[in-house]
Amino acid sequence: MGIRILNPVTPGTRHRSVHTFEEITTSTPEKSLLAPIRKTGGRNNYGRVTSRHIGGGNKRHYRIIDFKRDKFDIEGVVKTIEYDPNRTCRIALVVYKDGEKRYILAPQGLKVGDIVKSGDNVEYKIGNATKLKNLPVGAVIHNVELKPKKGGQLGRSAGTSIQLVSKDQKYCQIKLPSGEVRMVLSECMATVGALSNPEHENISYGKAGRKRWLGIRPHVRGMAMNPIDHPNGGGEGRSKSGGGRQHLTSPWGQLAKGLKTRKRKKTSNKFIIKRRK
């Protein structure tokens, strides 16, 4: 896993870097684990844009990932490490002894031929999945469930890892990449190891067209707009927020800097031990 910086042969390659993809073993995905993706263009069922700056992009197939890791006490062999266009980390194709094939998120250090297993009595080894109560304190994990049997929701992007801080009878405390410490039920599943492709954050796209390939449309600053189009638009010359009296906001007037948007009476607040800030 590395990054290759391109020579400035053209303006588009001047500041461009790409993955070397040396860890990838095949470019052909498993057909039985593919599903179609229908593009929305950021529009809802009424045809109205609800998420801006979305549209176009290359066609993709969705890879069906096993986030639950609920195939207990059956060993699986890693057959391939693959690229997934829908996520930042790599994925691994696991073939179990009974013949079933599943994709899992590939942690750092997982190689073709490795044995992975999930269940209550599994070894503390990269790629193995078990309940939080069975892991040692200080364990580095990813793909952590918030509710038992729902499937992993925390720690799923490239290079991410979560640390198990302490254990109790009913709850375990985990430290998230943001610095937040929160309680999760001990029955929740987690996978051992930090996720692959940690260099992803250092990639430089180099040109606008590369963002368009990903389905990301141009994002115009509010300050560059007219007053009719945005609360921060207008002003003689470049003025911070329409004449210098107004705070930076979203197009709909929500304060953009410093305003806490989390609900004060949110039910899950009681599970947060330490905030990320």
Strand content is 15-25%
**What CATH architecture of the largest domain do you see?**
Beta Barrel
Q: How confident is the prediction overall: mean pLDDT?
A: 94
Distance between the termini: 32 Å
Largest sheet: 7 strands, antiparallel
Global structural class:
mainly beta
The fold-level CATH name of the largest domain is: OB fold (Dihydrolipoamide Acetyltransferase, E2P)
Main β-sheet, spatial strand arrangement: 9-16-10-13-14-15-17
CA radius of gyration: 22 Å
Number of strands: 17
SSE order and pairing:
Layout: E1 3-5, E2 17-19, E3 34-36, E4 61-63, E5 76-82, E6 91-96, E7 101-105, E8 115-116, E9 129-131, E10 140-142, E11 144-145, E12 152-154, E13 162-167, E14 171-175, E15 181-185, E16 189-192, H1 208-213, H2 241-244, E17 272-274
Antiparallel strand pairs: 1-2, 3-4, 5-6, 5-8, 6-7, 9-16, 10-13, 10-16, 11-12, 13-14, 14-15, 15-17
Could you describe the 3D structure shown?
With 277 residues, this protein is mainly beta. It folds into 2 domains: 20-201, Beta Barrel (OB fold (Dihydrolipoamide Acetyltransferase, E2P)); 226-277, Ribosomal protein L2, domain 3. The protein has 2 helices and 17 strands. The protein has helices at 208-213, 241-244; strands at residues 3-5, 17-19, 34-36, 61-63, 76-82, 91-96, 101-105, 115-116, 129-131, 140-142, 144-145, 152-154, 162-167, 171-175, 181-185, 189-192, 272-274. The protein has a 7-stranded antiparallel β-sheet with strand order 9-16-10-13-14-15-17, with no helix packed on it. Strands 7-6-5-8 form a 4-stranded antiparallel β-sheet, with no helix packed on it.
